[in-house]
Amino acid sequence: GKKVVITAGPTYEKIDPVRFIGNYSSGKMGFALAEECAERGAEVVLVSGPVTLDVHHPNIRRIDVESAQEMYEAAKEAYTDADAGILCAAVADFTPDHAADHKIKREKDDLVLQLKPTQDIAASLGAIKKEGQILVGFALETNDEAANAQGKLQRKNFDFIVLNSLNDKGAGFRVDTNKITIIDHEGATPYPLKTKLEVAKDIIDRLTISMNK
């Protein structure tokens, strides 16, 4: 009976009509979360970047986007009347200041791209979060993992944050497993390596506790 907004996958930031800045996110974790929420009776809005995955549960309404700006607009609108948001997408932090309207030719030895920051989806939703709404973030780190995740928890106004490290074998992009630590304002709870379907259950168990407080 709850409405949950989930972001998943990468974003693509156009350089020209055939090239983009992106990342290796497959969307598997976000899609697993969407299916788990729907199985438990939630109405799910899944805002997905470009991935090759399909949704299966009829309670999931999928919105396909490409850029960080498109994901921001869709997520912000959906979160307005949602009970919870889970920001699992790997959103680009920067986008080209100008996208060429034609394919850039290799006419010289170097190419300089001017980048500008994208809209911070997490901070924006954290700023409009109302009493009773829950907001969950993700942090994929390569160094100072716990400290960086703790800082992000505070800055973005998350209720809790899911930390995964690229230093852990079997965690991160393009794999079917994940190893997480859930960090909230009271401490950290580490979990062993599991399939992303099992990890989704752990995260939604924790979300249920937060929503019932």
How would you sum up this structure, described in words?
By secondary structure, this protein is of the alpha/beta class. It is 28% helix and 29% strand. The strands form 4 sheets. The protein has an 8-stranded mixed sheet with strand order 5-4-1-6-9-10-12-13, sandwiched between helices. Strands 2-3 form a two-stranded antiparallel sheet. A two-stranded antiparallel sheet has the order 7-8. Helix 1 crosses helix 5. The longest helix has 16 residues.
List the main descriptive attributes of the protein structure presented here:
single chain, 213 residues, alpha/beta, eight-stranded mixed beta sheet, two-stranded antiparallel sheet, 28% helix, globular
Given the structure, what is the number of helices? 5
**What's the count of strands?**
14
Summarize the amount of helix as a percent range: 25-40%
Look at the helices and sheets and give the structural class. alpha/beta
Please state the overall shape, judged from the principal axes of the Cα atoms.
globular
| Mean pLDDT reading | 93
Work out the radius of gyration.
Answer: 17 Å
What is the string of helix and strand elements? EEEHEEHEEEHEHEEEEEH
Q: Beta fraction of the residues?
A: 25-35%
- The low-confidence runs, each spanning 5 or more residues with pLDDT under 50, are none
